[in-house]
Amino acid sequence: MSNTPFVVSFALLLSLPLLFLFAPRILPPKHVQVSLPDELDDLALFRRATLASLHPPGSISRLSTTNPKPKIAFLFLTNTDLHFAPLWELFFKGHKDYYNIYIHADPKSKINPPGGVFKTRFIAAKKTERASPTLISAARRLLATALLDDTFNSYFALVSQHCIPLHSFNYVYNSIFKPPNTESSRYPTLYPHRSFIEILSDEPQLPDRYTARGKNLMLPEIPFEKFRIGSQFFVLTRAHSLMVIKDRRLWRKFRLPCLNADSCYPEEHYFPTLLSMEDPDGCTQYTLTRVNWNGSTDGHPHTYRPMELSPELINQLRTSNSTYSYLFARKFSSDCLKPLLDMAEKVIFRD
């Protein structure tokens, strides 16, 4: 009996290496979560943006001159260098009164700031990580900053460092601001334009993604029949962007950590679910960003390499089943920059 404590202690000591070896395989992986200080910072930003939007247009942007033309706010969400900045520079060239740029760069990543029109466009950023609600927070932070910065920002296009434009700026601008066909639409006349965001309700992975945080944890705010899947990248109207940063009810659910990391893609669920529940007729239900999921690995889409690039590929990527052609595409490796620049004037920006 006197040896029992010694035996127990010795057994525990021996089990420690095994615990460190197998614990990562048994326990759910830990991800970066939205801390309370970050949450409070965001809420303060969201309130300022909401209050500022109550005033009529006419304020002076910190990043561009005042003019009466509606603008597209391009929101870059990145954790690496903006490899395709030179291509986007050509895209924006000559249109400074029609756009603004905002960049959320993960602060833990060492990023070389690009120059030109991207200079000084970085916003106050927080840590982000895949399969965590931090990506939702980053997108909301970009939306709020753009709403607060310039009252003429009318559309908000979220893109990544791996995205490229598929058309000229004129084509993109005119496509997005094209008057909708009101005769065939039921969406409210309060919104003269609709948001371009993918909203899917019949995907086979829907049940697993709904229960990623645990069974019934999304209830009562989000019943299963209201849960949606969509693309992480979108183009939202100003009204819908305000709707996103004002939301508190659904955010409380989507900020919960996932137990099943394989089915956890909060940024692909939160935005389509929220907008589908609040204003389904105000959304087109499809995205303007082309992604190739054939041959995807570990949840990542196909990455195009230089040997795949050609004028035929650009035309293929533009093709859509909707009334709009795709305006952007991802995902491209960084070494695609030179061949894309070689095709820019004669192919990509020649509509």
TrEMBL record:
Keyword set, alphabetical order: Glycoprotein, Glycosyltransferase, Membrane, Signal, Transferase
Domain of life: Eukaryota
Signal sequence bounds: 1-23
One Gene Ontology molecular-function label: glycosyltransferase activity
Keyword Disulfide bond set for record: no
Topological category with respect to the lipid bilayer: Single-pass type II membrane protein
Entry's Gene Ontology cellular component terms: membrane
InterPro entries: BC10-like, Glyco_trans_14
Subcellular location: Membrane
Family matches, as PANTHER family: CORE-2/I-BRANCHING BETA-1,6-N-ACETYLGLUCOSAMINYLTRANSFERASE FAMILY PROTEIN-RELATED, CORE-2_I-BRANCHING BETA-1,6-N-ACETYLGLUCOSAMINYLTRANSFERASE FAMILY PROTEIN
Protein name: Core-2/I-branching beta-1,6-N-acetylglucosaminyltransferase family protein
Lineage, broadest ranks: Eukaryota, Viridiplantae, Streptophyta, Embryophyta, Tracheophyta
